[in-house]
Amino acid sequence: MALFRHELGDVLRDARRSQGRTLRQVSSDARVSLGYLSEIERGQKEASSELLVSVTDALGLPLSFVLREVSDRIAVAEGVSVPDTVPDELTDAAGPLVGAR
């Protein structure tokens, strides 16, 4: 069973790593403690909406894109086929995270 917090953590970690950034860099930019962000990335803690906005801003990604990626990963785990409807301008801005399932 796919849990939202696990998929969210994976998406955030994948985005951070694809940018070549450390957990310390992102936590500093997002003004979130290093330990707490680490727990979110590992799916051990639930992120509040405010914290999630801070982290996605620090990563330079739209919140909607991150939530869509999480939703798509959960759909795949559930065996649901999801059509690709992300506009090209957003996929270009998101870089290698798009389609990284």
UniProtKB/TrEMBL annotation:
> Which SMART domains is this protein grouped with?
HTH_XRE (SM00530)
Show where the HTH cro/C1-type domain sits. Answer: 12-66
Which Pfam families does the record cross-reference, listed alphabetically? HTH_31
* Domain of life (superkingdom): Bacteria
PROSITE patterns per record: HTH_CROC1
Entry's Gene Ontology molecular function annotations:
DNA binding
Q: What is this protein called?
A: XRE family transcriptional regulator
Provenance organism? Brachybacterium muris UCD-AY4
